[in-house]
Each structure stands twice: as structure tokens, then as C-alpha cells.
Amino acid sequence: MGRWYDGHVNDIVYLDICCFKRPFDDATLEKVRREAEAVAAVLDAAKAGKVRLVRSPAHDVENERNPREDRRLATLLWLEAATVRVSATSETADRARFLSGLGFSPLDALHLAFAEQSAAEWFVTTDYILLKRALNHRAQLRVPVVRPDELPLPDGDEK
């Protein structure tokens, strides 16, 4: 993960659905505020064409489960900004089953499999259980898993 943005790379970033929910969490907590700001920076970078976001069927399924309509609709708008779309394949399903066997929840395993399928440079999450499990199994993963505030993004001045 030592590679930093060079101004020419158009990194593919897979945001876990919890990242899209982070802006709605209690911003009086320093960690939450920092991560919410980092998610906003990722969304801004995507809007500016500095990174490309991924949208997968797992995003849609998980977002539809959100009982809060305002949050579901806001997340849907952010997901619409994704320029990389992936579809379910038998290979993705097989990979998700493998990852689930490592202890990832079925939905987390599916998100990770879709991130790998999309050739994402980064899988970004605020789920600390997922982060810990990814650290323990990083040799078996094909995408680095980071918190939003760990993601290297371009400065606002770069073009």
C-alpha cells in the first residue's frame, strides 16, 4: 500500500456501504468525523474524475435493506456517481464463498469479491470487524482494505 497518488493514475475505489452511511453517524466523535470527512473527500475526488467508484449488486441489495428512506436515497444518489459497474458472475460467487470460509460475513465476502472483480486499487470500509479480519487474511485478499482516512487521495490542486 505504499503507492501514493501520482496525478496520472485514475484509481478504482470500492467503498463499502458503511462508508456511504458514515456521514449520518454522530460527528461529535473524532473518529467518526474524520472518517466522514474522508468519505466526502473520496466522493469529491470521484466527482472531479480523480478516482473511479465501483457499484455492485451487493451495494444495491444492502442499500435497499436500509429502513431509513432519507439515507437510502442519499446513498443511492452517491452510488449513481459510480463509473465502474460490476455484475454477478459464477467466479464472483465462488470467490465470495471462499472469502466467507475465511470468516468474512457473506455480505462482506460478496463486497470483497466484487471489489476484486472490478480491479479496485482500494477497498474502503469503516467496519472495524471487517478491517481486522482483512488484516489477518491480507495474503488471501487481492485488494488492500483500508479506512477512508487511510486512503491516499490527490490534493485539490492536482490536475
CATH class: Alpha Beta
Spell out the CATH superfamily.
5'-nuclease
| Elements, N to C (H/E) | EHHEHHEHHEHE
> What is the number of helical segments per DSSP (H or I, 4+ residues)?
7
Strand content: 5-15%
The N- to C-terminal Cα distance equals: 22 Å
Level-2 CATH architecture? 3-Layer(aba) Sandwich
Task: Tell me what the structure shows.
- The structure is a single chain.
- The protein has 159 residues and is α/β, with parallel strands linked by helices.
- It has a single domain, classed as 5'-nuclease (Rossmann fold, 3-Layer(aba) Sandwich), CATH 3.40.50.
- It has a five-stranded parallel sheet.
- Helix 3 packs antiparallel against helix 4 and helix 5 packs across helix 6.
Keywords summarizing the entry:
48% helix, Rossmann fold, disordered N terminus
Topology:
Blueprint: E1 11-15, H1 17-21, H2 30-47, E2 51-55, H3 57-64, H4 69-80, E3 84-85, H5 90-101, H6 106-117, E4 122-124, H7 128-136, E5 145-146
Parallel strand pairs: 1-2, 1-4, 2-3, 4-5
Helix pairs in contact: 3-4, 5-6
